[in-house]
Design brief:
By secondary structure, this protein is α/β, with parallel strands linked by helices. The protein has two domains: 2-106, no CATH class; 122-336, Rossmann fold (3-Layer(aba) Sandwich). Helices cover 33% and strands 28% of the residues. It has helices at 2-11, 17-20, 59-64, 66-90, 95-103, 145-157, 173-180, 185-190, 192-202, 295-314; strands spanning 28-30, 33-35, 37-41, 47-51, 105-106, 112-113, 128-131, 135-136, 162-165, 206-228, 240-258, 263-282, 326-329, 335-336. The strands form four sheets. Strands 7, 8, 9, 10, 11, 12, 13 and 14 form an eight-stranded mixed sheet that branches. A two-stranded antiparallel sheet has the order 1-2.
């Protein structure tokens, strides 16, 4: 049986007559009896699958017997060869994607991801790259450190490139060129030609521009009673907790502009920044003692969150992305709902 399949694959038939007849090998369990399958090829190139009529033991004894094990091995080997035949002859175009499903890497969310993801800057290895100050909306105006942190992270990891970005108020080559040409971060984000003009003045190959919008910081008091069952007192006032939930969201828009051609070669709209805080308080705690995180703390945490998200968007194969939402703070207690289900 195996020789016939191998010969069929070696012949590489020009038509899909044989290919369309999928090799379906299976074990048929009939009254606890495992029956292997035999494949035959007719004169008209059709595949015929029929059970092998053999005298064999039934039930668990057949499986455990040496003969049953041999039959199982043959059927399994035939199944693998059939799969290979289907990939090569039936769907040659999608063969790579099918093989990827067999060897792909699995991530934390149980979905398959490629071990090699193309970076939008992959074609600019050893190039000079500038990171311009982003255009921040009024609510996020004090988050300007984001471009400094992104530039620092990229320059430390990707030393083959030359990175030009503002490092401090005393050392800000990009901002100086913007001031010299009387341009703003908003103008160079909206007009690729103006961005290329600043890039040319800096002597770089590409320039990264960005915009930060839709900054939102909200909070909500959750008066649902949660219980810390690690306490020995049982369900009482000292084990009941309420939660203060606070979250912040923001949108990042990125563009890569090629200086020589004055054109946008890559764009990323609405890269979401999303962080959460979950604080726990004993149920009898006065509301006057329950405080939300101050905006400056939230924005500092958002900058750290976005730094990794932006770096991952530019170099997905070199930087790990942040979870969305990222829970920055959670209760120290092992809190559960009334029925005992953990809240995390």
């Amino acid at each position: 049986m195996l020789d016939r399949i191998l010969n069929l694959i070696r012949q590489k038939p020009a038509s899909n007559t044989i290919a369309k007849n999928r090799l379906k090998l299976m074990l048929i369990q009939d009254r606890e009896q495992i029956v292997p399958q035999r494949i035959t090829i007719s004169d008209h190139s059709n595949l015929i699958i029929e059970p092998v009529k053999e005298k064999s033991e039934t039930g668990l004894a057949n499986i455990l017997s040496l003969k049953g094990v041999r039959n199982m091995k043959k059927v399994f080997a035939s199944f693998l060869l059939a799969m290979l035949f289907s990939l090569v002859f039936v769907h040659p175009i999608s063969a790579r994607s099918k093989l990827f499903l067999l060897v792909g890497k699995k991530n934390k969310s149980s979905s398959f991801v490629s071990t090699k993801i193309k970076s939008p800057l992959e074609d600019y290895t050893k190039a000079k790259i500038a990171i311009a100050p982003f255009d921040f909306e009024k609510k996020a105006a004090d988050m300007g450190r984001l471009t400094i942190d992104v530039g620092t992270m990229l320059s430390l990891r990707l030393k083959e490139n030359e990175w030009i970005f503002d490092k401090s108020k005393a050392l800000q080559p990009v901002a100086d060129q913007l001031a010299k040409h009387k341009l703003s971060p908003k103008e160079i984000y909206e007009a690729p030609a103006l961005a290329a003009k600043i890039g040319e003045a800096l002597g770089v190959d590409v320039i990264i521009v960005g915009r930060i919008s839709n900054m939102r910081i909200k909070h909500k008091m959750d008066d649902t009673k949660y219980y810390d069952m690690s306490q020995q007192a049982g369900i009482s006032g000292t084990t009941k907790y309420t939660l203060l939930k606070q979250w912040a969201t923001i949108d990042v828009h990125l563009k890569i502009v090629e200086v020589k051609n004055e054109k946008v070669v890559w764009t990323k709209d609405k890269l979401k920044g999303y962080i959460k805080y979950i604080q726990s308080f004993q149920a009898q705690t006065p509301r006057s003692l329950i405080k939300v995180k101050e905006d400056n703390i939230v924005k500092a945490d958002m900058v750290r969150h976005l730094t990794m998200r932006v770096a991952h968007a530019l170099y997905p194969d070199k930087f790990e992305d942040k979870e969305v939402p990222e829970i920055v703070e959670k209760p120290k207690q092992n809190l559960v709902y009334t029925g005992g289900k953990p809240i995390f």
